[in-house]
């Protein structure tokens, strides 16, 4: 009963729907389009013959408690109670054939009264989406062009986690060839691998990020389980005759650092070799000046990726995370929808991202994210009202994420070229997360560099961030669902990929904070070990209460996915 | 005025003034905030997953989920909505 659209399985159309379509042709739902009333914000759409209409069941006058369905053939409105009487079903039977299909007046979703089930029609859904985006309905075919689903999101079968235990032979190998990290005689309750990092001259920007990365669960496991063996790698580099540069592998230095930090030695470690290596890679940043911790973070991940790409010889798309451990852990995919306000044509693009940059203030003057206060669009009036409310309340990470995924009207100075209209038009842009990374790094844009005014400044405001975060509302599937209700989307084949309840839940494990001014500041990292927080201030590690962390000025927050899902290997 | 008429009058007034719509939105917001919506979604998913043989009809789903949903509405949400309705009735001289 299901059909394939664009190679994806779509919800079934029942025989009654198919008959209806056959009988009424391509404009089957034309009359309905005229009745679509969209109430911004949230875009909830309903079917009303006139805006003030209060629909009620023509059989019993019921207008409140049960769902109301309007027959798409004769517009008769009937109530439907799944457990009790259904006047909608009675209508379908009495007027049969031809009156089986009805539309939910409050949700604009199709229903088959005979099959007693929701049905989907691509033509209707496309028309619905179009009508939602425009004030007036248009004639002719609707155009919803989606750029190709990122091909690298291979639909691998999800498999259950199988715990691994070494067999006797593996036990022997392990005993002979490896060194146990955990020393059972170490009775101290300071977490394993917690070690201070010496400041080598304004290197707190580096130390803070390193502390966070050294305790990023997936990264730590990768290096500690010898997935990047620095001896092996160096031998290979020399063998490949890469010359002097061949020995440069930041991942090798990271590997060395992991070994040192997790060796059990508690004295502060000096990451001098690592710093030197990083300088070789980022020559423009090689100085004893204070740098931006976030810039360092990006640069470090980039270097690891580059070397891996060079070794593997073929470029991988970053979104899939198959290229290197840095992307495997940190990269996600962002989806950007740009809707032309004139014709409703939507252009969708997917881009990989390695972290989430978030603006702090709701109404920054120069920032592109601010809503135009002069707009007459009712959407924006609502957005204005919300942001005014937020001015009185505290900034939260969730608020930032909501703002990040909120539809944003690109004003007249940012007109976008619409492929259908063939002119520049004003449009609505909305971001959402197509694929969540395993570790989400939220970067709060506190440092503003204005090239126009030739000055930089720091935004000091406090940001409230949760220790547990559910990212589900910011996913593309959620954003689209809240925009359109339950629809078929041409790309929608990822029901298998649909996040289960746990795969969008994240736990905070590291916070990099910045105190002080732009030119004279200090970075400190707070690490969380099973609900106990530790402050890592260069070489000094101290246990702190969670209130200290909550009050800190978060600059980069690291969240790890609570539950990891496994997919069948390609091999 | 007998209770049935009273209920109908209130109902009509709620709809005509747009208050019913506003209350519905408020309820939606509160239920989403309290995690009720996520719980229901999880229940629906579990129900669909368990139905191995056939696909699930909307009506079946509603039949199963409705009682669970009704009983798990947080008390404070109920109280807030009741309070809002009460003040509406009071200020509209029904």
Give an account of the 3D structure.
The complex is a heterodimer of chains A (571) and B (94). Chain A is of the alpha+beta class. In chain A, 28% of the residues lie in helices and 24% in strands. Chain A contains 16 helices and 30 strands. The longest helix of chain A is centred in the middle third of the chain and has 20 residues, at 293-312. Residues 1-9, 135-153, 363-392 and 491-499 of chain A have low confidence and may be disordered. Chain B has a domain at 37-85. With 94 residues, chain B is an all-alpha fold. The longest helix of chain B has 17 residues, at 75-91. The radius of gyration of chain B is 17 Å and the shape is elongated. Chain B is built from five helices and no strands. The interface between A and B is medium-sized, with 16 and 16 residues.
Principal-axes shape call of chain B? elongated
Mean pLDDT of chain A: 76
Mean pLDDT of chain B: 85
Q: Strand share of the residues of chain A?
A: 15-25%
End-to-end distance of chain A, in Å?
Answer: 33 Å
Most extensive interface: A-B, 16 and 16 residues
Question: Which regions of chain A contain 5 or more consecutive residues with pLDDT less than 50?
Answer: 1-9, 135-153, 363-392, 491-499
Protein name (chain A): Ubiquitin carboxyl-terminal hydrolase
Subcellular location (chain A): Nucleus
GO cellular component, one term (chain A): SAGA-type complex
Function (chain A): Recognizes and hydrolyzes the peptide bond at the C-terminal Gly of ubiquitin. Involved in the processing of poly-ubiquitin precursors as well as that of ubiquitinated proteins.
Topology diagram in text:
The complex is a heterodimer of chains A (571) and B (94).
Chain A: E1 3-5, E2 8-10, H1 15-24, H2 30-34, E3 36-39, E4 44-47, E5 67-71, E6 77-80, H3 87-94, E7 101-104, E8 110-112, E9 117-118, H4 122-133, E10 144-146, E11 158-159, H5 168-177, H6 204-214, H7 217-224, H8 230-239, H9 250-261, H10 272-281, H11 293-312, H12 325-330, E12 332-340, E13 346-353, E14 356-358, H13 378-392, E15 395-396, H14 397-404, E16 408-410, E17 416-418, E18 423-425, E19 427-435, E20 439-444, E21 447-450, E22 455-458, E23 463-464, E24 468-470, H15 476-484, E25 505-516, E26 521-529, E27 532-537, E28 540-544, H16 546-551, E29 554-561, E30 566-567
Parallel strand pairs in A: 10-13, 14-20, 15-23
Antiparallel strand pairs in A: 1-2, 3-4, 5-6, 5-7, 7-8, 8-9, 11-30, 12-13, 12-19, 16-19, 17-18, 20-29, 21-22, 24-25, 25-26, 25-29, 26-27, 27-28
Helix pairs in contact in A: 6-11, 8-9, 9-10
Chain B: H1 3-16, H2 19-33, H3 36-50, H4 58-71, H5 75-91
Helix pairs in contact in B: 2-5, 3-4
Keywords (chain B): Activator, Chromatin regulator, mRNA transport, Nucleus, Protein transport, Transcription, Transcription regulation, Translocation, Transport
Subcellular location (chain B): Nucleus, Nucleoplasm
Family (chain B): Belongs to the ENY2 family.
């Amino acid at each position: 009963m299901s059909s394939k659209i664009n190679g994806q399985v779509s919800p079934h159309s029942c025989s009654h729907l198919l008959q209806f379509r056959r009988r009424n042709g391509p404009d089957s739902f034309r009359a309905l389009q005229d009745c679509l009333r969209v109430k911004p914000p949230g875009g909830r759409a309903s079917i009303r013959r006139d805006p003030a209409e209060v629909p009620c069941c023509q059989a019993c006058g019921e207008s409140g408690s049960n769902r109301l369905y309007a027959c798409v053939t004769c517009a008769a409105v009937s109530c439907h109670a799944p457990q009790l009487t259904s006047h909608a079903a009675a209508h379908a039977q009495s007027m049969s054939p031809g009156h089986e299909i009805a539309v939910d007046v409050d949700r604009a979703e199709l229903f088959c009264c005979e099959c007693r089930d929701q049905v989907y029609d691509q033509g209707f859904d496309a028309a619905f989406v179009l009508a939602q985006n425009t004030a007036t309905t248009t004639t002719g075919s609707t155009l919803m062009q989606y750029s190709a689903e990122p091909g690298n999101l291979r639909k691998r079968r999800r498999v259950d986690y199988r715990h691994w235990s070494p067999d006797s032979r593996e036990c022997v190998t392990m005993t002979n060839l490896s060194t146990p990290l955990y020393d059972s005689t170490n009775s101290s309750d300071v977490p394993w691998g917690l070690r201070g990092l010496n400041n080598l001259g304004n290197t707190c920007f580096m130390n803070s990020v390193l502390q966070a990365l050294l305790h990023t669960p997936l990264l730590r496991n990768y290096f500690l389980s010898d997935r990047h063996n620095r001896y092996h790698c160096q031998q290979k580099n020399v063998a490949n005759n890469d010359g002097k540069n061949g020995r440069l592998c930041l991942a090798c230095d990271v590997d060395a650092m992991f070994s040192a930090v997790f060796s059990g030695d508690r004295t502060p470690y000096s990451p001098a070799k690592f710093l030197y290596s990083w300088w070789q890679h980022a020559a423009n940043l090689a100085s004893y000046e204070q740098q931006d911790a976030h810039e360092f973070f990006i640069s470090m991940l980039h270097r690891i990726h580059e070397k891996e790409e060079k070794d593997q010889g073929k470029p991988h798309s970053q979104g899939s995370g198959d290229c290197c451990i840095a992307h495997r852990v940190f990269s996600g995919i962002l989806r950007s929808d740009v809707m032309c306000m004139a014709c409703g044509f939507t252009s969708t693009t997917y881009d990989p991202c390695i972290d989430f940059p978030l603006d702090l203030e709701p109404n920054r003057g120069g920032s592109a994210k601010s809503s135009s206060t002069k707009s007459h669009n009712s959407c924006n009036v609502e957005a204005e009202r919300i942001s005014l409310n937020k001015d009185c309340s505290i900034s939260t990470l969730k608020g930032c994420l909501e703002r990040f995924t909120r539809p944003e009207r690109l004003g007249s100075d940012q007109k976008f070229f619409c492929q259908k209209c063939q002119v520049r038009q004003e449009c609505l842009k909305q971001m959402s997360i197509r694929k969540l990374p395993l570790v989400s790094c939220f970067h709060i844009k506190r440092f503003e560099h204005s090239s126009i005014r030739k000055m930089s400044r720091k935004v000091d405001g406090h940001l409230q961030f949760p220790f547990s975060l559910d990212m589900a509302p910011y996913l593309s599937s959620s954003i689209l669902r809240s925009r359109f209700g339950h629809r078929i989307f041409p790309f929608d084949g990822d029901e298998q990929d649909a996040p289960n309840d746990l795969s969008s839940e994240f736990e905070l494990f590291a916070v990099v904070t910045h105190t002080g001014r732009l030119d004279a500041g200090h970075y400190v990292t707070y690490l969380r070990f099973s609900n106990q927080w530790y402050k890592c201030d260069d070489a000094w590690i101290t246990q702190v209460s969670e209130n200290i962390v909550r009050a800190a000025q978060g600059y980069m927050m690291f969240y790890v996915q609570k539950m990891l899902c496994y997919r069948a290997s390609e091999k | 005025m007998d209770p049935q008429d009273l209920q109908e009058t209130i109902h009509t007034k709620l709809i005509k003034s747009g208050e019913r719509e506003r209350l519905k939105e408020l309820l939606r917001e509160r239920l989403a905030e309290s995690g009720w919506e996520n719980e229901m979604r999880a229940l629906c998913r579990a129900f669909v997953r368990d139905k191995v043989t056939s696909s699930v009809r909307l009506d079946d789903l509603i039949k199963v989920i409705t009682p669970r949903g009704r009983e798990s509405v947080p008390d404070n949400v109920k109280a807030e909505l009741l309070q809002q309705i009460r003040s509406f009735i009071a200020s509209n001289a029904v």
